[in-house]
Amino acid sequence: MSPTSPPARVVAVVVAYNRRDLLSEVLEALIAQDSPVARIVVVDNASTDGSAEVARAAGELVDLVELPRNTGGAGGFAAGMAVALADHDPDWIWLMDDDTVPTPSALRALLDAVSGTDVAVAGSRVEWFDGSEHPMNTPRPKPFASAGERRQAASGRAVPIRSTSFVSMLVRADVVRAVGLPIADYFIWNDDFEYSTRALRGRRGLHVPASVVVHKTRVLGSTDTDPGERFYYEVRNKLWMFRRSRSLAWWEKVLYGGSSALRWLRTVVRSHDRATLADGWRRGWRDGTRFRPRPNSDALADLGRASDAVRAVEPA
Asked: Buried b / exposed e across 118-142, counting CB within 10 Å, b at 16+?
């Protein structure tokens, strides 16, 4: 960024569901950023623990979007990004869950890495309480990145990526307008994998280790830690992605599809409740092969202001 250029206008989007104490910590951390955010859109997914009151009490920087039903992380991010675009004119949108606490310099490090480049998406280093890198949010390096791209990334102490997670993802607003919103019907799991690869297909992305956020999950584990009934979403959404989405080239679908099959096998082998996983796999396979996700205008209908914003970003 040159000395005469205006600062980038960044709107943060936080999806909240029944973690009011953590949400309060997240909002305090966002308000205290070295590089100020322009607004914070908090999407409350029909919480029952007073999360909306926490957001409302955080001050004028917060724009609270209260949804009458739980739309999952995928629906919440789609609604929040749509409201950010419709009402707050961002240059960048910064995405995170309500258990993602950014360090004071997290946004500044992201902006320093993307300033003066054509980068479309940037992600932070995600740590757990103890400072170790959180395996749940490890980005996928970009296969076959050119030597020039690797050098340019390395000059800013960054790494070229093919995907990153919604636990601190910075995405250019014009790219969101070009590729659309996350697919709300994914509900949970793989929504960020599908969306980040869609946003990065034919574009550049960076993992920025200097930008650090703390993902305050209850346990430190990767995505193949025993998921129980949620295994259904892992299977269904991966099948939707590999069969329906245009986010990946055919050879990437082969590569990541094989990786997913091995991950599923590891999950089953390590599980103490294989019957639940088997049921999730059967239902996920059935729904992933027989059905397809609905358009966001249908999945996010009857949500008032959020529905209007979704239709404005993704007209039929």
From this structure: ebbbbbbbbbbeeeeebebbbbbeb
